[in-house]
Amino acid sequence: MSLPDPVEPGATSNVIRDTSITTGDNSAVNVIQAAAGATVIIGAQAGAGLTALNDLVKLSPELRAAMGTFSADFQAAVSQVDVLGDYKDLHDLLHQLQFQVYGPLLREAPRFPDELTLEVLDDYQRTMRDLIAKLNSVATRKRVAESDQIFIPEVSQAQADLKLSLDDLNSETLKKAIWRLKRVLTKYPAIIDTRLNSAARSLRLSSIVSALFAIQTDLDTLKLDQVKVNQFQSGRAMIESMSHRLEVLVLEHEQWQNLDMELRRVEALIEQDLMELEMSWQDLKTQASMLYENSNDTWAVSIREYAALLDQQLEINNPVKIRQTFRNYRHEAGSRFFQVDIDLKNLCGELRQIGEPLAIILRSLE
Question: Which of 8, 161, 173, 227 is 20 to 30 A (C-alpha) from 297?
Fold first, then answer.
């Protein structure tokens, strides 16, 4: 599996921004808006709606009895959200390990054992210790496959090597710590990313949406606290929106990933020979056009322009311009893939906010 090129936190601040919208009941909803209008609704209101539903269950034996038929759907969703959340934790912790420890460690290592460098490296060592504690916490919950957490002891050993290098002022031990981190970060972020996307695909929110619609019908016949009912209605709408957004993003991510793998394959060969690009271009262009042909967003316009320019350069047969234009095209496509990946990961994080309220409802129904 190929992944979008990593971008350090903060580098996408011009791509994603927080804002808010107002719903029909005048309550504010935070959203994350990606460039070109991609929007992920934050899950806090969805969770609040489920919390309101739990309050209503406590007030109405009739509602409690009616909801009993949905216990299995709720339990399945809770389990799936828990797994999704733990893979999201691993994804984020590996990301922090890369950008808060490994990258800075590489920059500081040549100055070892300068006194100021020793202080900085000791900070990284403590950061590693905190990250390892969080990684072990995820492992303890036993929701993640054992094969997906076997890198944790390697990170622990890297932290021990780093600490020992500081104690003994041993540059060879420092190199070993960096080597261990590189070995982990070369392999496992891609594996965890794959598992996270798989967990997102497996999450079936549609059954929860259907159950909540049925519950809404029951609420319409019961005279209960209208404020709570309105909160539930808003939360139900948010969950429906998240369900639709999840389906769209999972499919879009898979399509961009397939394209990205093909573009990387061609890019690896064009320095030696343009034949692979010439033979593959029409199929690649057709595959890509399905992802941007109906969009007028900036990223789509840019990819279309580079595609048209590459058509011209291939016709003229200017090897230098062909390579340059193709790399620009691949960069724009890769940037879009990265943005879709960000949106999907953000949504996975927000979906966690419905897990605990669903679990509380299940306990109320017991």
Answer: 8
